[in-house]
Amino acid sequence: MPKDKKPAVSKGDDKVGLNPCFIPQSDIVTNLHSAVTKSECQRVVNALVERDLVTTKLYGKQAVYVVRQDTIDTATPAELAAVDKEMAQLQSTITEYKSKNRRLTSELSALNSALTTEQIMDKLDQLTAKNDQSKEHLAHLRAGTQLVSAEEKDKVVNEMTRHRKMWMERRRLFKDMFATVTENLPGKPKDLLEELDIEVQDPVDINVDPMDLLKA
């Protein structure tokens, strides 16, 4: 007897799995993550075939199940147009809400970075107290009030005298050591000081006119 011919396969169906309507039984079990056994799956698929909801095709030894397209309700052109219109309206609404969300997010960020009413009141109290203190200090200065006590003044003078004495002692030690080091060196010691970027810091009389120092 001649062998049965395989059912004709359309051009788009020549490879099983490329068309989403063609479902092998093994794929059904796999996609269900083995929640059902192959036998259980076979019984359910056979029941769907008997109810004409699914048809079966044989590709070699493999049975492929095809969902019938003619049993699916299709929308009319008017219904499709209504769906497209609704989608356009929803897209417009989404765009509007996105713009509103960006604006509200910007306002919220500005509010979060701003001071609260309590913080503003505390800041105002601090500035008011500082302003009053400055006014009082200015009034004393205008009245010629002695703001520094004699004890504080003597303490500052003594501290300055001690530091000046220490500075002069260290300056004298440096000059002595520098003179010893440069005694037999060629050139002028002053040129070496400039080359090494060393300032001797000679004392200056604060009562001397600065213009006289520039003329010297």
Automatic annotation (TrEMBL):
One of its GO terms (molecular function) is recombinase activator activity. Its main location: nucleus. InterPro entries: Hop2_WH_dom (IPR010776), WH-like_DNA-bd_sf (IPR036388). Gene3D superfamilies: Winged helix-like DNA-binding domain superfamily/Winged helix DNA-binding domain (1.10.10.10). Residues 80-114 form a coiled coil. Keywords: Coiled coil, DNA recombination, Meiosis, Nucleus. Residues 26-67 form the Homologous-pairing protein 2 winged helix domain. The keyword Coiled coil applies. It holds the Pfam family WHD_TBPIP. It is found in: Nucleus. It comes from the Eukaryota. One of its GO terms (biological process) is homologous chromosome pairing at meiosis. GO terms for cellular component: condensed nuclear chromosome; DNA recombinase auxiliary factor complex. Signal peptide: none annotated. Belongs to the HOP2 family. This is Homologous-pairing protein 2 winged helix domain-containing protein. It comes from Mortierella polycephala.
